[in-house]
Design goal:
alpha/beta; 11 helices; binds NADPH dihydro-nicotinamide-adenine-dinucleotide phosphate
Length: 295
């Protein structure tokens, strides 16, 4: 199996990837203390030392609202560092696997976005991620960019954990009901990514290089943030926990520093047709995640 160098191993996706990949692959997993993406130039030496056949980048500046006031850091981590990794991957003949976001879209299309739809990000985070995607696409490296959304898991900072806490602490919780997407469990992203790499044999860059491209990768179906919260509340109530009342509100009633796309569901057809892979429906994945599964 290919030697893998993973960045961002303490994040939601990175953690799930590390657990899954270490079973089958020679894996070097690095966190922000090992490799600081705000100093992209230093990543070249890190890649050289590890001599990877696959570089996986699960690190990102993901604080969407803070990015509005920290554009320089967001751009370094989300755009310049991936550009350096792509250059290093090309130099080493390695495959680069990278993750992108639905926030590259403005959410006005009215139907699921395909990989060919033109991006139009609403904020700094989306713009910085888009710049990273474009740099990788133009680098000449063998690459797979998996575009996902609404990522959650049982650790880190995410909507599931926040909602569980609020539903326990408060009498009433108000949640936005007019933004739609597919909640996507980090374990499902890791499982799909690992399955694609496992199928590639000993030289992933050679085997998968011909499929270089952008692939949407989300759980199936769609809901609103309110719908996601209601599913979480239902499961807590079914387990006998006392839970708060939920109220659906409009985005206008919950102003945030960065604007969010209203309807940015992603069409996963290309992933299925190219790799024969599909992630589970979002409700099924939620049940699997809550059952404590690792992937
Ligand atoms: P997390 O926020 O959970 O983790 C991000 C990781 O990036 C952390 O391990 C963090 O390290 C690392 N990181 C942040 N800044 C730096 C830095 N300066 N140098 C090195 N590492 C750094 O992200 P997710 O797992 O949720 O996201 C994975 C990918 O999926 C990202 O590309 C993200 O853009 C994308 N994505 C995420 C979505 C979401 O809802 N979360 C939605 C759509 C796409 P540390 O913990 O040490 O700070």
């Amino acid at each position: 199996m290919s030697r893998i160098l993973l960045f961002g191993c303490n994040g939601q996706v990175g953690w799930a990837l590390a657990r899954r990949l270490q079973r089958d692959f020679p894996l070097t997993a690095l966190d922000s203390a090992d490799a600081d993406f705000t100093r992209p130039e230093e990543l070249r030496a890190v890649v050289r030392a590890a001599q990877p056949q696959v570089i996986i980048n699960a690190a990102a500046y993901t604080a969407v609202d803070q990015a509005e006031d920290n554009a320089e850091a967001a751009l370094a981590v989300n755009a310049r560092a991936p550009a350096v990794l792509a250059e290093a991957a090309r130099g080493a003949g390695a495959l680069l696997v990278h993750y992108s976001t639905d926030y590259v879209f403005d959410g006005t299309k009215g139907s699921p976005y395909t990989e060919d739809d033109p991006p139009s990000p609403l904020g700094v985070y989306g713009r910085s991620k888009l710049e990273g995607d474009l740099a990788i696409q133009e680098s000449g490296a063998a690459y797979l960019i998996f575009r996902t959304q609404w990522v959650y898991g049982l650790r880190g900072r995410n909507f599931l954990l926040t909602m569980q806490r609020l539903l326990r602490e408060r009498r009433e919780v108000r949640v936005v009901g007019d933004q739609f997407g597919a909640p996507t469990w980090c374990g499902a992203i890791a499982a799909a990514s690992a399955a694609i790499l496992s199928g590639a044999g000993d030289d992933a860059a050679a085997t998968l290089g011909g499929h270089s491209g952008l692939y949407n990768m989300t759980c199936g179906g769609e809901t609103s943030w309110y719908g996601f919260a209601a599913a979480i509340r239902d499961r807590m109530a079914a387990a006998g926990e006392p839970v708060a009342r939920l109220e659906s509100i409009a985005s206008a009633e919950y102003p945030t520093r960065a604007a969010r796309p209203a309807h940015a569901v992603l069409d996963n057809t290309r992933l299925a047709e190219t790799f024969g892979i599909g992630l589970p429906d979002w409700l099924e994945a939620l049940d699997t995640a809550l059952a404590g599964a690792q992937d």
